[in-house]
Amino acid sequence: MNNQENTIILAIESSCDDTAASIIVNGNILANVVVSQEIHKDYGGVVPELASRSHQENIVPVVAAALKKAGIKREELSAIAVTQGPGLLGSLLVGVSFAKAMAFSLDIPLVGVNHLNAHIAAHYIEEPIPVFPYLCLLVSGGHTRIIKVDSTIELNVIGETLDDAAGEAFDKTAKMLGLEYPGGPLIQKFAEGGDPCRFKFSTGKVDGLNYSFSGMKTGVLNFLKKEVQKKPDFIKDNMADICASVQYTIVEYLLEKYILAAKKHDLTQLSVAGGVSANTYLRKRLMEECEKRGWSVFIPKFEYCTDNAGMIAMEAYNHFKAGMFSSLEMKPYAREGSK
Ligand code: KG4
Ligand code: ZN
């Protein structure tokens, strides 16, 4: 392939516990390789030190696999893209250092990408693509935001969680139930066939378009403690109903505010992104709510919902076209605003 005519970008994602690499050619994803770290399962959450070490082990084979899958040689690359933040600093450092070394040795530009904006860019990978302006509900393990997307680079946060993220609410509740990390997919699995209205959990009373999940988490914890005291096998015997009720509570709360945001901002294209958007109940309920109002729904393919480098590649491609590059001195950041 001739890199004079084609824009060929290698993108790297290492912000949390997935080591990922992708190749994008003129806006088309040719490879999307993800290696998820199994090591955190037994700890009930990501252990930062172990995550950094695993990225260090995985990054070379993951990048090599992406290049091979796309049939691209290193010398053909136009730029190297990488997640700059937010995320775990030790994890980000592995990806950023690797990306800098590649950009330096190949003498090509470096593109640092914001992980959250990249989750939204997942909507531009495949048709149907929303038309600006539209709304995005970004729900991941670290963030929960309602964003008004005016263009690929104009993103306005109109609501967000004041404490835990929706993914965290899934993961922390799962931990209380003795389930492995990440808990979201397991809660979804155990919820199948359960009664979503059997147990009632209250959600945070926060004004406007913001969310709060910490009260619900404490509510579930207190409820479980009380029931287990009465019947030690309570969790085991009621797993499906507990999971269905937790999933129902989180999803309905997310949708209640999201629909309110759409009405308030008079927008009828609603999208969802981030790891929690892989949740089938959320996808189904969002589609139902939009269908009855004649609104449109946009949800990325499963592989582009949870952490992946395809979304980093798409975001980087837009930066590349706009001439937005990073210097080799750029630093990763754990939180937004801490650059
Ligand atoms: O976007 P992501 O892969 O990583 C972050 O940027 O945080 O999101 C991970 C989160 C975890 O909290 C995980 O439990 C949740 O997404 N998740 C789900 C599902 N799949 C992943 N939550 C509910 N249902 C799912 N099917
Ligand atoms: Zn993410």
Written account of the structure:
It is a single chain. With 339 residues, the protein is of the alpha/beta class. It has 2 domains: 8-120 and 305-321, ATPase, nucleotide binding domain (Nucleotidyltransferase, domain 5, 2-Layer Sandwich), CATH 3.30.420.40; 130-299, ATPase, nucleotide binding domain (Nucleotidyltransferase, domain 5, 2-Layer Sandwich), CATH 3.30.420. It is built from 9 helices and 10 strands. It has helices at residues 48-70, 89-106, 115-121, 166-176, 183-191, 214-230, 234-265, 280-293, 310-321; strands spanning 8-13, 18-25, 28-36, 79-85, 110-114, 134-139, 144-149, 155-160, 269-273, 296-298. It has a 5-stranded mixed β-sheet with strand order 3-2-1-4-5, with helices on both faces. A 5-stranded mixed β-sheet has the order 8-7-6-9-10, sandwiched between helices. Strand 4 (79-85), helix 2 (89-106) and strand 5 form a beta-alpha-beta unit. Helix 4 (166-176) packs across helix 5 (183-191), helix 4 (166-176) runs parallel beside helix 6 and helix 4 packs antiparallel against helix 7. The longest helix is centred in the last third of the chain and has 32 residues, at 234-265. The radius of gyration is 20 Å and the shape is globular. The relative contact order is 0.18. Bound molecules: 5'-O-[(R)-(carboxyoxy)(hydroxy)phosphoryl]adenosine (KG4) and zinc ion. 5'-O-[(R)-(carboxyoxy)(hydroxy)phosphoryl]adenosine is lined by residues 16, 140-142, 167, 170-171, 182-185, 188, 274-276, 278-279, 306-307.
